[in-house]
Structures are given as C-alpha cells and as structure tokens.
Amino acid sequence: QVQLQESGGGSVQAGGSLRLSCVSSGVTYRTDCMGWFRLAREKQREGVALIDKNGRTDYADSVKGRFTISQDNAKKTLYLQMDNLRPEDTAMYYCALSRSTCMYAGLREWNYGHWGQGTQVTVSS
C-alpha cells in the first residue's frame, strides 16, 4: 500500500523560508511523476510544482522563482523548498504521486491517485 507522509510545515513571517518533505513507502513501481499541491481556505486545491523521474520540473506561475521542488530517490523523499514566502502562500500542502508521465499529469489533481495527509503552512504579514 502506497503511503505518503509530509512534514516541515509551520508558521513563518512573510519573506521567510520553509522546506517541506514527503517520504513515500510501499511504492513498488517506478513512479513517473510526483507533485506538491496546496489547499487554502475557501479556495480550490492548486497545483504548485511537479517533478518527473528524470528530474524535470514545472511550477505554477504564482511560485516560480520562489519555490524549488527536488527529490532524493535513495531516500524516497520529495522536497519543496519555499523561499520568500507570502501571506497568500498560507495553505495545507500535500504531496501526491501519479503513475502517469508528468507531461500527461501536469498540475491537475485528478491525475494523481495517491495523496499524503498534508502539512500546514502559515505565513503572517
């Protein structure tokens, strides 16, 4: 059974940084695409960043230049380095896994079949 566990969330002031981690277990196939999504109050879940098995990445326009997605395959861990955080980045952040290619999956949540429980990020002004 695939399990994803996020950690690293917290409360920071605007301009600060956080690094989220997502450890996967039970993955018996070579995952092709993993991503980070976020859900803010009274908003729809939004795709933030994705990375494929070859390390190619893509980002939502709202986080380009501020967030960096990476992975350590040996540790089965996905990361999201978030710099220059803004109050509008406040949300629950989820990692997700897709069996599709990133080219197909994109930042569309319905293409991801496995999700973690989320970690809260709060940015104060």
Describe this structure as you would to a colleague:
The chain is mostly beta strands and 125 residues long. Helix content is 3%, strand content 50%. The protein is built from one helix and eleven strands, in the order E-E-E-E-E-E-E-E-E-H-E-E. The protein has one helix spanning 102-105; strands at 3-7, 10-13, 18-25, 33-39, 46-52, 57-59, 67-72, 77-82, 91-98, 114-115, 119-124. Strands 2, 4, 5, 6, 9, 10 and 11 form a seven-stranded mixed beta sheet that branches. The mean pLDDT is 95.
**Annotation, overall tally of beta strands:** 11
Shape: globular
Portion of residues within helices: under 10%
Largest sheet report: 7 strands, mixed
* Count of separate DSSP helical elements: 1
What is the string of SSEs from the N terminus onward?
EEEEEEEEEHEE
Q: Structural class, judged by helices and strands?
A: mainly beta
> What is the subunit organization of this protein?
single chain
